[in-house]
Design brief:
Layout: E1 3-12, H1 17-29, E2 35-42, E3 52-55, H2 59-67, E4 70-73, E5 87-91, H3 96-104, H4 110-129, E6 132-135, E7 151-153, E8 182-186, H5 196-208, E9 213-217, H6 230-243, E10 247-249, H7 259-264, E11 268-271, H8 277-280, H9 287-293, E12 297-300, H10 304-312, E13 315-318, H11 323-335, H12 337-350, H13 356-359, H14 361-374
Helix pairs in contact: 3-4, 5-6, 5-11
């Protein structure tokens, strides 16, 4: 049974959430089925692949889509059933419509309204014609109550590579760097539904309280540049100026193979959002890098990340927009070695649960059953 995974995002040296997910879905599917990945290509691939990778928009991509027995991907332009008996698995892990609502605001332009309607149409087609739907966690099912197909839960995964002994996460050690204070890492983008300003204000307050630390935004320019609006980088520039000298940003998106090394040099991973419908229905892909690197997490209430952090003791959950609460959480994790050690121990305990071969098991099982039916 031939499987083709499709993403409109970039796969290459630098990747964001959708590209990372597509790469690992293809890698796990390739253990069981002949698999092809269709994506935008930028730079070298992130690792060895036991599957074929073809560039989106090429003849090879069109052939792979048509020949596949099973298609797996997000609702996107050009991704649909192309022949009878071909099965389609729509990946709905990313609540795109809720993101666009926050991105475009209450008075979207004509172009933005057209984009919104196109995405709504793609979601409706997925719910009406998909053979199987994937969500990231249970609450996302609420968004797709009209679905005709079965729904399975496939969360994001964590890349479980061993830590270098020189970057040990022992209690009290963290990743202190002489003269710089402790490093707090913001691992993803600074989208409209997120709250980087509260993180900046909190780090300023922590330093003013006599606890040296630095906030680092891991990367400025997201891969897949055609999706970027310059105003997000302008906003980040303003935040860096506001937070200087305690706030910095890497000039480019960090290569995928280096992200865990950055996290292991950090004491805290921080991911804050505003109180929106997007927050309640998002899984926060950078949560899983923090789990993989065993770095204690500060996150805002609501959503999968907050529920997991609170339930498993992986860090501290804070109210939305409360820079004082964030500052207190930072000081606790930097100064309370026993709290830090408990968080690291709990991260190590839950880490195997999110290995990619574990989280993709429901998808593998579903496709294996389809193969048995075909035989």
């Amino acid at each position: 049974m031939r499987v083709t995974v499709h993403t409109p995002d970039v796969v290459g040296e630098r990747m964001a959430g959708p590209g990372i997910r597509a790469w690992h879905l293809a890698a796990e599917l390739a253990r069981h089925f002949p698999t092809t990945l269709i994506a935008r290509r930028e730079g070298a691939l992130p690792g060895d692949a036991d599957f074929c990778v073809v560039a989106r928009g090429t003849r090879d991509a069109a052939a792979a889509l048509k020949k596949a027995d099973v298609l797996v991907g997000q609702p996107a332009r050009g991704f649909r059933r192309l022949r009878r008996r071909q099965r389609v698995v729509y990946d709905l892990f990313d609540p795109v419509l809720l993101e666009l609502r926050e991105m475009y605001g209450r008075a979207p332009s004509v172009r933005q309204r057209v984009h919104l309607e196109a995405e709504r149409w793609r979601i409706r087609r997925a719910l009406a014609s998909g053979d199987l739907l994937m969500v990231a966690f249970a609450k996302q099912r609420e968004l797709y109550r009209r679905a005709r197909a079965p729904i399975i839960e496939v969360p994001f995964g964590a890349t479980l590579t061993p830590a270098s002994p020189s970057l040990s996460r022992s209690a009290g050690e963290g990743a202190r760097r002489a003269g710089e204070g402790d490093l707090i890492l913001w691992g993803g983008g600074t989208w409209e539904w997120l709250d980087p300003k509260t993180a900046v204000d909190a780090v300023i307050a922590v330093n003013q309280a006599g606890v040296p630390c630095k906030l680092l935004f891991l990367g400025r320019s997201r891969p897949n540049r055609h999706t970027i609006e310059r105003r997000r980088e302008d906003r980040l520039d303003q935040l860096i100026r506001h937070g200087a000298p305690y706030v910095e940003a890497n000039p480019e998106w960090v290569p995928y193979g280096e992200r865990l090394s950055w996290l292991r040099r950090s004491k805290i991973a921080i991911m804050l959002h505003r109180p929106t419908a997007e927050a309640a229905h998002s899984i926060r892909t950078r949560l899983f890098d923090a789990i993989a690197a065993e770095v204690p997490i500060i996150t805002t209430e609501e959503g999968f990340a907050a529920e997991l952090v609170a339930a498993e003791g992986l860090g501290v959950v804070v109210p939305p927009g409360d820079s004082g609460a964030v500052a207190d959480a930072v000081i606790r994790l930097l100064r309370d070695d026993s709290l830090f050690a408990r968080c690291v121990s709990n991260l190590a305990r839950v880490r195997p649960r999110f290995a990619w071969d574990v989280v993709t098991r429901p998808l593998i099982d579903a496709l294996t059953e389809w193969q048995k039916q075909a035989d």
